[in-house]
Protein 1
Amino acid sequence: MNTERVSFQLYSARKFPPLDSQLAYLAKLGLRNVEPYGGLFAEPAALRDGLKKHKLAAPTAHVGIERLRADVDAVAKIAKDFDIKVIIVPAVPTEERTGDAAGWEKLGEELSAYQKKLKAKGIDFAWHNHAFEFAKLPDGSYPLDHIFAAAPGLLWQADIGWIEWAGESAAAWIAKHKDRVIALHVKDLAPKGTNAAEDGQADVGHGVLDWKKLMPAINAPGVRYLVLEHDNPSDYERFARQSFATIAAW
């Protein structure tokens, strides 16, 4: 596989500072892209200097919804300063994860407003899923469908691991919303009930997911970025090294 569209979510390395060492290691592996998370923008100079020093790009970034609620224009400026093509909201607070369709539609309307404002500035805007969007509501519908129904222009960074963790088919969901999928979080799972120290996740290609089955979704025309992520690795270098080797061999 051409690895030019492969990226690495820096959240995976958050427990192993300093940032400069992380970027140096990822660049040495052959990665050309990384995906910053919101906390890194608290020290923009360090992030900017590190990316430049190690010749890394940040085509996508996670930005918390609180930052968008405070100042959408400030988020747009971050995107322009770092040449970020896609701003992605990773989640909403637990207390906002409502149990009814109307609540999810309201979130979709809010996201749609941000999407329109960012689009006007030439920036794409996407939602990133966890497992909670696939917890069926009392009427049998899914939160994710309600979010999307209320936000026609909203794009999607589909997290393969979290969809499968929820007991759903990532391939089926990505096919269902294929026109929205701009990026994937490439995440693997350990056998059920194992690897609790790493939150039940695994290095890509070293877990239980059927990547052959997922390949049509991974190679779909609209998918621009494949972002490696592990929420709690005990060794981020091992995770990056083994996962990048797996994806490079596809």
Protein 2
Amino acid sequence: MSSIGHGHFYTTQLQAGLGVIEETKILLDLWIPGMSTPDLFEIALQSGTFPNVSARRLRNIIAECFAPRYLNAKGCPAGILKDLLPNINALESTQLFFLYTCRANLILFDFIQEVFWPYYTSGRDVITNDNANEFVIKANSEGKMVKPWSESSIKRVSAYLTGSCADFGLLEKGRRSTRKIIPFRIEPIVALFIVYDLHFSGLGDNSIISHKDWALFGMDMSDVVETMKQLSLRGFFIIQNAADYIRISWKYKDWEELIHAISKG
């Protein structure tokens, strides 16, 4: 169910919506397993839960934001999140939305790794739209887009990158071209989710520890192992770590069992 492979090219898909956190919560509530993207649009349109959103805007949010993030793998992410959200807090759910948004948008994934975290760890206080613009211009020159973007597209997407970071709590909110960097640390339940998500997708124990998703939270392998040791103390699994050898004894065989354990705290 995990989006292990990312698309090869950067897209402008973020322009349809950045974090769309509240909209995502509403759509997860309306969605039921097996529901297609057009069906969800019709249900959402008729529900009255988006009174200030035009039909065109709502269609874009569902088709360009919600579906690529949560309805891939036959809707598996949406099904898991729908069951999980009532059992976790707002910060935890926002971090999970961040994870799926980055998985679905390679440009955001790379921006977090190549710009946000280097700035954060070097002690910089702010990230500007100009910093994002430099990142997009470089990507454009390196052929990371299907076809070269215009100057206006580069400028727009640069603002979408910093705006997305603000929505997810990495940068300060508000309409501004310079944003303060905000301390950002993975929540334990989110770490547990990623560990089991990668396990259920078929990855081996060492591949889980070294997976690139952790870099979204500024974590290297030693950070991941330490976090997993803390989770093991809470009984979610058993981890054995010696030198380069990692072995995990898994406690839950499927999402239903894991979500039940999380709901019990």
Protein 3
Amino acid sequence: MVHEPQYNPQVRCVAGMESGIELCIPPDDVADPELSIVIPALNEERNIAEFVSWCKEGLRRSNIRGEIIIVDSSTDHTAELALMGGARVLKTPKRGLGRAYIDAIPYIRGKYIIMGDADCTYDFREIEPFVKEFRAGCEYIMGSRFRGYIEPQSMPALHRYFGTPGTTWVLNVLYATHFSDIHCGMRGITRDALLRLNLSSQSWEYASELVLKSVQLHLRTAEVPVRFLRDRNGRVSHHKRMGWFSPWQAAWINLRAMFVFGADFFLLRPGLAILWTGVLLMLAVMFGPITIGPVTFSFYWMLMGLTLAVLGLQSIYLGCLAQVLNDLTGDSRRRWTRLFRYTRSVGWSAAAMLGGFAAALPLVREYLRFHLALPHEVPFQSHLAITGLFFIIAGFMNFGFTLVLHAATRE
């Protein structure tokens, strides 16, 4: 049973930098911390006092000077109990898990940050592996329950054997990474790296955004085993409170983040393959049908080639723009603007369109010669005109892409 905490007049509260935010500082506040433990909390009065005690024990075992920041949006006594235990409390409006971390950034004083949950499901008495990796130069550290310890009945079978392994596999394929548990709530990051990540996710997808952007920024990354414990003191997890659909919604939100930040995976390389397949089909029958074994490649195969080539070219351009829009290092901007230099690219577009019109002119002459009709037999000019149409389309698409690319990369 939770007893109502007593008011402590030594607690100092100051208005935050944003409306609706207030920072409360305990009497025994730590000066100049090296590590900040930053924890969002929502109605966790059952466990918050013990959790803060665990954090203090973890700091003591790791021999590091640290602060505990509880980002609180509760309607119960979570904030007061955390303050009594010696944690700083940042009171914020309730507006999402990811947003809690964004709100906390201006108030984090430590060089290193460990994130997690306030429900005592992650054992914050054992933060020493994180501290060692930080001091070894790591910028982003993922906890792994699968490489550590999972207490019986702490993780539903659906999460343990399907949801988490499945979404982890998807991320590893998309981003060529080797994580074992991307949904582990206990993770570490340097304050400098967190600022460079420029988090934007407001909800559950912040977890995937952290991983994805750490890969894009080429942060020095490590993975450490952690202990995952079942809910304590009759606590019911947030997912269970929100209903059976909540885990599925969280999974979809995280997948959406993976797909959006990794859109080029679905566009760039597949687009190149589709483009060259289409171009080869067109070139093979540009001067008329050809037969290879039992297969005759005719005018209709050429139309299929045109369709594939246009689809592939569009995919390549969208993939380039996706890389530019999600570029955190500037590498993609420099690579694509160097390849598509404005004057050269516009010149190529004009040449392609003029060449395409020239290739289509013989068919136009045939059309006029037959009194605005074309013969039933497909003439040589039709094959050549299809190639010309592709160059007209490609030239215009390249021109449009060049304009958008340089608009997106404009300083």
